[in-house]
């Protein structure tokens, strides 16, 4: 009983330690004086409240504290999640301290090179200033990413299965796969703009191309690396060629397929931003380009923040799907 109370007490301290860095950042924002005069925070009406960048920063930090506290309570009842929470506590504490440090150096004192390194309150200001415009561009990027990445995954997995399973397809397609794989997707932009009727479809094509290569290559490698003994066992049990493909080869290739999808996700995001910067009528890349023209670098960082959150969320979603599909690996793979 005493041991359980001691463990619970230590865990409560861990939750408090996790939230402490963000609490310090709030105190820094509240108590450290605004020494630099080159800062002007406009106030915006948000419902019944009037907020500026500093007010929004404090709300975000309070939301992080509340979120990590709630997740800390929930994770306590699961041993694996509890261990992961404890492991990340130091990183989250330092993240809070860094926000406070950036607030001092980027906003309160302006000792960082300006306007290239704004403070966190300035980075959050665009969400008050032009939230609807940011939201419109975010949805444009998500729509473009969804269509490009989805078709890239379908084409990549389909090509990889055909290349890995059929020798004749491997003979004709694999050299093409190797040649096109080393060419950056953005290099195809002049041809895409010429071949396709709209900039949106052109950008979808570029994302498909950049996702296709890693997924197809790793899928083919996974199919080809399936041990012959597994095919023989399936054949003895009465499985024909189709059965062996869908019940032996593809399941064996699943870890490589998901590795390819995770790798392609990063490539797709990079290509998405580049395509939006070079010819799209909307999107986060377009927003960055527009902000850069006016030297509004705090808006550039706001777009980068959205990209980081979206990329992390998509990567988390792919990880959850991978854990579900590869649940048979639990206890086998560390």
Summed up, what is this model?
This protein is mainly α. It is 78% helix and 2% strand. It has 2 domains: 2-125, no CATH class; 132-329, MetI-like fold.
Please give the radius of gyration in angstroms: 25 Å
Calculate the terminal CA-CA distance, rounded to whole Å. 32 Å
CATH class of the largest domain: Mainly Alpha
Strand content: under 5%
Count of helical segments?
12
Poorly predicted runs of 5 or more residues: none
Mean of all residue-level pLDDT scores: 88
- Number of extended strands: 2
Q: Give the CATH architecture of the largest domain.
A: Orthogonal Bundle
H/E element order: HEEHHHHHHHHHHH
Give an overview of the whole structure.
This protein is mostly helical and 334 residues long. The chain has two domains: 124 residues, no CATH class; 198 residues, MetI-like (MetI-like fold, Orthogonal Bundle), CATH 1.10.3720. It contains twelve helices and two strands, in the order αββααααααααααα. A two-stranded antiparallel sheet has the order 1-2. Strand 1 and strand 2 form a beta hairpin. The model has no long low-confidence stretch (mean pLDDT 88).
Secondary structure layout plus pairing:
Elements: H1 2-31, E1 44-46, E2 49-51, H2 53-75, H3 79-108, H4 120-129, H5 131-165, H6 167-181, H7 189-195, H8 199-224, H9 228-236, H10 241-277, H11 284-293, H12 297-325
Antiparallel strand pairs: 1-2
Helix pairs in contact: 1-2, 1-3, 2-4, 4-12, 5-6, 5-8, 5-10, 5-11, 6-8, 7-8, 8-10, 9-10, 10-11, 10-12, 11-12
């Amino acid at each position: 009983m005493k041991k359980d109370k001691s463990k619970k007490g230590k865990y409560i301290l861990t939750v408090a330690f996790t939230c402490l860095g963000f609490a310090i950042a709030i105190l820094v924002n509240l108590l450290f004086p605004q020494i630099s005069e080159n800062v002007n925070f406009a106030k915006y009406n948000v419902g019944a409240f009037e907020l500026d960048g500093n007010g929004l920063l404090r709300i975000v930090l309070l939301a992080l504290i509340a979120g990590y506290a709630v997740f800390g309570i929930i994770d306590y009842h699961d041993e694996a999640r509890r261990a992961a929470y404890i492991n990340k506590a130091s990183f989250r504490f330092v993240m809070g301290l860094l926000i406070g440090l950036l607030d001092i150096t980027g906003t309160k004192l302006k000792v960082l090179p300006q306007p290239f390194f704004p403070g966190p309150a300035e980075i959050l200001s665009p969400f008050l200033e032009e939230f609807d415009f940011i939201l419109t561009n975010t949805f444009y990027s998500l729509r473009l990413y969804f269509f490009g990445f989805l078709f890239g995954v379908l084409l990549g997995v389909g090509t990889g299965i055909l290349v890995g399973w059929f020798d004749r397809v491997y003979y004709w397609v694999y050299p093409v796969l190797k040649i096109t794989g080393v060419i950056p997707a953005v290099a195809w932009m002049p041809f895409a703009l010429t071949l396709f009727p709209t900039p949106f479809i052109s950008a979808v094509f570029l994302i498909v191309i950049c996702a296709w290569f890693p997924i197809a290559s790793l899928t083919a490698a996974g199919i080809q690396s399936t041990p012959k003994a597994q095919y023989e066992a399936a054949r003895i049990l009465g499985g024909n060629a189709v059965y062996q493909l869908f019940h032996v080869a593809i399941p064996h290739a699943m870890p490589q397929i998901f590795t390819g999808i995770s790798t392609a996700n990063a490539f797709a995001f990079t290509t998405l931003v580049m395509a939006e910067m070079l010819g799209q009528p909307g999107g986060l890349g377009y927003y960055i380009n527009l902000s850069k023209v006016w030297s509004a670098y705090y808006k550039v960082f706001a777009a980068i923040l959205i990209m980081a959150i979206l990329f992390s969320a998509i990567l988390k979603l792919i990880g959850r799907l991978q854990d579900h599909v590869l649940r048979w690996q639990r206890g086998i793979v560390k």
